[in-house]
Design a protein that fits this description.
Pfam families: Epimerase. The protein has 10 helices and 13 strands. It has about 325 residues and is an alpha/beta fold. It folds into 2 domains: about 5-160 and about 195-220, Rossmann fold (3-Layer(aba) Sandwich); about 160-195 and about 225-280 and about 295-310, UDP-galactose 4-epimerase, domain 1. The radius of gyration is 19 Å and the shape is globular.
Amino acid sequence: MSDQRPHVVLGTGPAGRTLAGELLSRGHQVRSVNRSGRADLPSGATLVTADVTDPHQLRQVTDGAAAVYNCTHVPYEQQVQVLPLIQQSLLTALGPTGTPLVVVDTLSLYGPTGGVPMTEQTPFAATSGKGRIRAELTERYLAAHQRGDVRVALGMAADFFGPWTFVSSLGATTFPNALRGEPVPAFGDPDLPHSYSYLPDVATGLATLGERPEAWGRLWHLPVAPALTTRQVHGLIAELTGRPVHTHVVPEPVPYGPFDAAFMAEYAELFYWHTEPFVMDDSAFTQTFGLHATPMAEALRTTTDWFRRAEAGHTSRAA
């Protein structure tokens, strides 16, 4: 008999929405959680409202869950203060239940590597405040698992791109601009290899971590296509749109388009992602679970088609 307990997804932004769709496609019941009570979710997902920093509210919305996935989004300027509150709430709410917890995270905890590809064995050597807090949280999660306080797996991803993904270095200033023939920005050095994580691949990886007990107790690099340079990515997009992509290099963290001064002031300490090779190795995940990333050309085709429909007004942004 199949497990009818719901899989609970915290957050309804691009990652949470895409993960909800992936879990539904696997036959799971999905309960999505946000603070506003508004979201554009895949058909079949149930939306409930809660403040995830409140353990009591979190315990109520995760009651009876088969697994819980933390896909909450916290703005850069709030991460150092808010991320520890969310973690404490998760550990308090889920610890007594034994419910597996899957957390999606970034690569900022490693810090600059001098271009050496990042693996799960790369030391936590963050130089940024946001990276250091991510490293501390990861260490606390893993320590809690080792103590038996909670069952947890962490899924690491590079820069997101894909449907619904607007605020990204490969998002709202890339695909719409390319479709309109406008300059497309590239941060830092566009001729360095750079890993980009296709959001449906991230969702596939997270759902797998939630289903497979052998995944728990460690961090994993989620499936990612072999790194290309950003200029090569722009070239593939040009082939898909049928018009040249004019790459506009943004060599320093200065405001550009939707990336305003406040955003760039926070992003500056992570700008090394674009000034040295930024390559994520997913071989541990692919060898363990037999799942591989979508080829970059195919992922870009799907994303370009989605933005083309969005530009035509057929798609609204997620709440």
